[in-house]
Design brief:
Strand content: 15-25%
Helix content: 25-40%
Radius of gyration: 27 Å
Strand order of the largest sheet: 13-12-9-8-7-6-15
Low-confidence stretches: none
Number of strands: 20
Distance between the termini: 57 Å
Number of helices: 19
Shape: elongated
Structural class: alpha/beta
Length: 574
């Protein structure tokens, strides 16, 4: 049979736009003479719809949209993700053929960890069935169902499925594509069945869906792999009946089949839409998209996340405060690749502490990127603040307060440009700074999107070099990469005056924030005791800041926000 996997970028709540996208891919698959087309989990509504699912009107509108989609399922069978209400709400896979919805599979395993909270919205399904197309029996599943090592995939295979179809919206973190591929290969081998995995692609607030859809044979070999971070229709010819021979040779399954008799699963017939025998020419094989390295995955995820946040929320342009430092340089460079230079505006806001080097590098960066650039000195703005506060501050020495006034003056100017011109302010802080609170509320944290929110400082340097290597010239001036990091809020200031060196700090942050290692375990692991004590104290104090930070692209297995939920009022130190 010929499979088509439609790796599409939907928008949450845009039922009309999503339906148009789905129908266009169904038509494209039909023109490619596919027998069956898969579309991602909750493609009808976009994923995740969150509390929209608590609105009965939204659920009813999704149901109507599904039936409009089903009308286009002629001469092809369609598996598409949708919410389905039947005395309760289910995360479902609709089986469409002959212009109608033939059956509804209800997702059995509802993830409720990390970024997921599906138990809040859905009831778990219980019933299984098979879809028959010609001589092939297909077992439909949804996302988390295939991550479970046993049922439902095991039961579907025991019931006779030669192909397990999984429609998914599996969020990205660096390396997730390899984890999925390894897991799916294990499922294919364990169940002696072919697997078709269709993933969503695109950005939704913090989440990135990376695509990388897959088709594997019954021995776990990858027959087709979709590209990462872009839409595609993956079309490939497979012969799932080949799994029968492997099952005959592997007698271990029979023992399990005796314990779990599943030879009477209901069968939904979709045959007659098209048969492979009518197709002329040689079997169609799909190219294997390359496996991307870590830095390229990070780059593409960041660019996709920013692009989709801007486009899906109706912004035209973005504005970035360019200091001459590496964080703002990387943010601006990624924004240009995501949106085009004509949609990016750079603003330098020097103070009396800004060096000629950073002021010059800000100008050179803008010229290299080809973006609109303006310089708005903040000395007079800061002086006005200081004058207004002079009586209140009388008798007190300058301290961090005056430094933060500079950062907040810059935030005011950026937000004023945003208000006047409708530009989205892209904040430039990184995960290392956000972890330890080395950032100013309503200052450099101001903005609508924090692009580098989940990028450690050491990775900021790596990404900057990666962008230059790809461009084969100094897209980001080398002087910016070489300069020691500084906020330039006082004379001769360096980040390392307030923080441990970033390489040492980032290792502790990864262990404490992402791996939940305790103070005692970090010490036993051999981390520098002074770095551990300083870092943990700053991390725990800064939770109130992180709660007020803009959303940003999730890149790592545990990100601030959806993943890591620590109470602000909290006396535990360990």
């Amino acid at each position: 049979m010929r499979l088509a996997l439609a790796q599409i970028n939907t928008t949450v709540g845009d039922l009309d736009g999503n339906r148009e996208r789905i129908v266009a891919r169904i038509e494209e698959a039909r023109e490619a003479e596919a027998d069956l087309v898969l579309l991602p989990e909750l493609a009808v509504t976009g994923y995740p719809p969150e509390d929209l699912l608590l609105r009965p009107g939204f659920v009813r509108a999704a149901e109507r949209s599904l039936h409009e989609i089903a009308k286009t399922a002629c001469q092809i069978a369609v598996l598409v993700g949708t919410p389905h209400f039947d005395r309760d709400l289910y995360n479902a896979c609709a089986v469409c053929a002959h212009g109608e919805v033939k059956a509804i599979y209800r997702k059995r395993f509802l993830p409720n960890y990390g970024v997921f909270d599906e138990d809040r919205y859905f009831a778990p399904g219980r019933d299984l069935f098979l879809v028959q197309h010609g001589d092939v029996l297909i077992g439909p599943t949804v996302c988390e169902d295939i991550w479970q090592p046993g049922p439902p995939a095991t039961d579907l295979a025991l019931g006779g499925a030669q192909l397990v179809a999984n429609i998914s919206a599996s969020p990205f973190h660096v390396g997730k594509d390899r984890e999925r591929e390894e897991m799916l290969a294990t499922r294919a081998r364990d169940n002696s069945c072919f697997i078709a995995f269709c993933n969503a692609v695109g950005g939704q607030d913090e989440l990135i869906f990376d695509g990388h859809s897959l088709v594997l044979d019954d021995e776990g070999a990858v027959l087709a792999r979709g590209p990462g971070f872009e839409e595609c229709l993956l079309v490939v010819d497979v012969d799932p009946s080949a799994a029968v021979g492997r099952r005959l040779r592997d007698v271990r399954r029979r023992a399990l089949a005796r314990e779990r008799p599943l030879d009477d699963l209901p069968v939904v017939e979709v045959s007659g839409v098209r048969t492979g025998a009518r197709r002329n020419g040689r079997p169609r094989s799909a190219p294997l998209a390359p496996v991307l390295d870590e830095l390229e995955q990070m780059r593409l995820a960041l660019e996709l996340g920013l692009h989709d946040y801007v486009e899906k929320n109706g912004f035209r342009d973005v504005v970035v405060g360019i200091s001459g430092g590496i964080d703002s340089a990387l943010t601006a460079a990624l924004a240009v690749e995501a949106l085009g230079a004509e949609r990016v505006h750079g603003v330098s806001m020097p103070s009396r502490y800004s060096s000629e080097g950073t002021r010059g590098d800000a100008q050179r960066l803008a010229e290299s990127l080809g973006i609109d650039f303006r310089e708005l000195p903040i000395a007079d703005v800061v002086a006005a603040f200081e004058t207004a506060l002079a009586q209140s501050f009388a008798g007190r020495e300058p301290d961090l307060t005056e430094e933060n006034l500079q950062a907040r003056a810059r935030g005011v100017l950026l937000m004023a440009l945003s208000n006047k011109f409708g530009w989205l302010v892209v904040a430039t802080g990184n995960k290392s700074e956000l972890s330890v609170g080395y950032a100013t509320l309503y200052g450099d944290m101001a903005g609508g999107f924090a692009l580098l929110k989940d990028v450690f400082k050491t990775d900021v340097f790596r990404l900057a070099k990666h962008l230059n290597d790809r461009a084969e010239h100094e897209l980001i001036p080398q002087s910016i990469i070489d300069r020691a990091p500084s906020a330039e809020l006082r004379d001769a200031q360096l980040d390392e005056d307030s923080l441990p060196p970033y390489p040492a700090l980032d290792r502790v942050l990864e262990a404490y924030v992402e791996l939940d290692r305790s103070r005692e375990e970090l010490t036993e692991d051999g981390f520098d005791g002074d770095v551990v004590e300083r870092a943990l104290a700053m991390i725990d104090r800064a939770e109130y800041k992180r709660r007020q930070a803009p959303p940003g692209v999730k890149l790592r297995p545990k990100a601030f926000g959806r993943d890591r939920r620590t109470p602000i009022t909290n006396r535990w130190r360990g």
